[in-house]
Design brief:
The protein has two domains: 1-33; 35-306, Purple Acid Phosphatase, chain A, domain 2 (4-Layer Sandwich). The protein is 32% helix and 22% strand. The protein has eight helices and 13 strands.
Length: 313
């Protein structure tokens, strides 16, 4: 009888220990998941709401907001913390923009749940007042730090930076745009003043990292990745090298298809990643980070997702 009672007691204690251990493991995994981040991003979509037509062209069947929305929803169903961003040139390139001036583009982005975007040169194509009006349909913050919109319709429609919380992570986002003079008609950008993008990006990044204590600082850039014909023109390569406190630059403007992000060293010798995913919404960039290690952040996976409709296969 004694041995039987002892066995039952010991078994109960062992079962309790297992349950307690399982609970502990569940808490550890929950904490680790709260420190993982998936960043999805687009750039230079240029009003491509529908896939490219099936006309035998190189891009036939690719792109389209319906397929992009489905893929984003699938990723969100599997990952706890997803950040969705755009690096500008939302407008211009299809009849949708010519007729509706950007409303369906903004509504599509709102439906997909974009967390933030910056402004590209083609987003000025129907004028500042139009962009300010269409932005109301977007329901996401427009982040740009080196355009001074004082005295224009955009004066109160943008922010120089934004802090987004995902799980246990605090992510700081800023944005920079390209020089408008000579690229955009004066009457379209009106009184907008162009400020030094490197100085402004560094100012915002310092505030976000040192004062706000962000775990990561992202710069949405419409400067262009690089310019072979003018190596001194400000671009993402130069911004990365001259930056401080920026961890990731998500770029646009040059329609550069990058299979993987490029690693640079900033002024302090720290790592800066630069990525861009072509144009027309053909690709969706994906970067997965893990902040649970002692090194604070670690890029665990990066790849581009081809946007196409599901087939019957």
């Amino acid at each position: 009888m004694y041995n039987r009672r002892k066995f039952i007691t010991q078994s109960a204690l062992a079962a309790g220990a297992i349950l307690s251990s399982n609970g502990l493991f569940a808490e550890i995994e929950k904490d680790a998941a709260a420190k993982r981040l998936t960043i999805l991003h687009t750039n230079d979509v240029h009003s491509r709401l529908e896939p490219f037509p099936m006309d035998g062209g190189r891009n036939q069947g690719l792109g389209g907001v319906a397929a992009r929305a489905r893929i984003i929803a699938d990723i969100r169903a599997k990952e706890s913390n997803v950040l969705l961003l755009d690096a500008g040139d939302i407008f211009q390139g299809t009849p949708f923009f010519n007729i509706y001036k950007g409303e369906p583009e903004m509504k599509a982005m709102a439906a997909m749940g974009y967390d933030a975007a910056t402004m590209g040169n083609h987003d000025f194509d129907a004028g500042l007042e139009n962009f300010a009006t269409q932005l109301d349909h977007g329901k996401f913050p427009l982040i740009i730090s080196n355009y001074d919109f004082s005295g224009t319709a955009m004066e109160h429609k943008f922010v120089p930076y934004k802090i987004v919380k995902k799980g246990k992570l605090k992510i700081g986002i800023t944005g920079v745009g390209i020089e408008l003079k000579g690229l955009v008609s004066d009457n379209l950008y009106e009184k907008t003043s162009y400020l030094d993008p490197i100085a402004r990006a560094n100012q915002m990044a310092s505030l976000l990292k040192k004062e706000e204590g962000c775990d990561m600082v992202i710069c949405l850039s419409h400067l262009g990745y690089q310019f072979a014909e003018n190596k001194n023109k400000v671009c993402d390569e130069i911004l990365a090298a001259e930056s401080e406190h920026i961890d990731l630059i998500i770029g646009g403007h040059t329609h550069t298809f990058m299979d993987a992000p490029k690693l640079y060293k900033n002024k302090a010798g720290s790592d800066v990643l630069v990525n861009q995913v072509g144009w027309a919404g053909i690709l969706l960039g994906r970067l997965d980070f893990d902040f649970s290690s002692i090194e604070k952040k670690n890029l665990t996976k990066s790849h581009t997702v081809v946007i196409r409709e599901k087939t019957s296969e």
